[in-house]
Write a structure and sequence with these properties.
- With 92 residues, the chain is mainly α.
- The protein has one domain: Orthogonal Bundle (Recoverin, domain 1), CATH 1.10.238.
- The protein is built from five helices and no strands.
- Helix 3 packs antiparallel against helix 4.
- The longest helix has 19 residues.
- The chain is globular, with a radius of gyration of 13 Å.
């Protein structure tokens, strides 16, 4: 987690990035360290997240729809930041 995206992130605190990394690691393939977003989204649904009520699930679904291949944590964090910034800009 030493990429500039992690070190110089203005969207999340270092503790939040650590929490995101821990969650990512729970679902990522242990050998490749990559996450299949479709599996991750399905897991969120199993744990009770509902698309109509959960902004985080809607963001994850959006990332999943755009990324059919497994992604790294840095890619995941970059996409998450991009989606959050777009949402903030849209909502003003």
């Amino acid at each position: 987690m030493s990429s500039p995206l992690v070190k110089e992130n203005s969207n999340f605190t270092p503790d939040q990035i650590g929490d995101l990394y821990d969650a990512f690691e729970c679902f990522a393939n242990p050998s490749s360290k990559l996450l299949n977003m479709k599996d991750f989204v399905e897991s969120l649904r199993i744990y009770g997240y509902e698309q109509t009520k959960s902004p985080i699930l809607r963001i994850m679904l959006s990332i999943s729809d755009e990324n059919q291949s497994p992604i790294s944590f840095e890619q995941f964090l970059g996409l998450l930041c991009m989606k959050i910034v777009k949402k903030i800009m849209k909502n003003g």
